[in-house]
């Protein structure tokens, strides 16, 4: 979890509630994936700059978080929104140019000890599980680890091959090879 402790310590005075800690964690995953935060809110402002840090006003609204990101090496921009619903947070991540949206639902109490918000070494539970959820469900598919994309591609190819082999049983009057009737 290299870097998370530094980020969490830096924003510790802004962490007033469990959802702040979860947003900080998701932000850290965005940074690890090659994005930089350019500001809060839906619209660009004159104070926008690419940074690994959270903006000063990142946690002003505890019911709706809104952060904007830009890829380090491209012009790709993403808008991250998080809404609190009871003990759950719903994250939406939209690619600003394609309008593609991915989402993630997180049960706050599965991943935090809410009594330890100001003790980094005790606040998070199952960081690997939460990290995997963010990477596989929220981050754009091209930013997911290559192995997963390859596995998904080979799985899809296998499924297509099986469909071709078993398609239209009325047209194929011979049993598949290897079938023992």
TrEMBL record:
A biological-process GO annotation: proteasome-mediated ubiquitin-dependent protein catabolic process
GO cellular component: endoplasmic reticulum; proteasome complex
Domain PI31 proteasome regulator N-terminal intervals: 12-136
Major subcellular location class: cytoplasm
Domain of life of the organism encoding this protein: Eukaryota
The entry's keywords: Acetylation, Cytoplasm, Endoplasmic reticulum, Methylation, Phosphoprotein, Proteasome
InterPro entries: PI31-like, PI31_Prot_N
Localization of this protein: Cytoplasm; Endoplasmic reticulum
GO molecular function, one term: proteasome binding
Compositional bias per record (Basic and acidic residues), positions renumbered to this chain: 141-167
Region (Disordered) residue spans: 139-181
Family designation: Belongs to the proteasome inhibitor PI31 family.
Known role: Plays an important role in control of proteasome function. Inhibits the hydrolysis of protein and peptide substrates by the 20S proteasome. Also inhibits the activation of the proteasome by the proteasome regulatory proteins PA700 and PA28.
Name this protein carries in UniProt: Proteasome inhibitor PI31 subunit
Organism whose genome encodes this protein: Mola mola
């Amino acid at each position: 979890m290299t870097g998370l402790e530094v980020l969490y310590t830096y924003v510790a005075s802004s962490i007033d509630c469990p959802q702040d800690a979860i947003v900080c964690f998701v932000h850290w995953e965005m940074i690890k994936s090659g994005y930089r935060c350019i500001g809060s809110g839906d619209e660009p402002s004159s104070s926008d700059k690419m940074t690994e840090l959270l903006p000063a006003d990142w946690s002003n609204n505890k019911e709706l978080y809104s952060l904007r990101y830009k890829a380090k090496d491209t012009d790709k921009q993403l808008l991250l929104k998080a809404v609190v619903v009871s003990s759950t947070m719903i994250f939406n991540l939209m690619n600003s140019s394609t309008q593609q949206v991915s989402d993630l639902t997180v049960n706050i109490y599965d991943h935090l000890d809410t009594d330890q918000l100001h003790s980094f070494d005790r606040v998070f539970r199952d960081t690997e599980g939460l990290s995997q959820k963010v990477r596989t469900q929220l981050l754009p598919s091209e930013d997911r680890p290559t192995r997963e994309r390859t596995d998904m591609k080979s799985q899809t190819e296998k499924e297509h091959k099986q469909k071709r082999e078993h398609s239209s049983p009325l047209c194929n009057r011979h049993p598949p090879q290897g079938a023992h009737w």
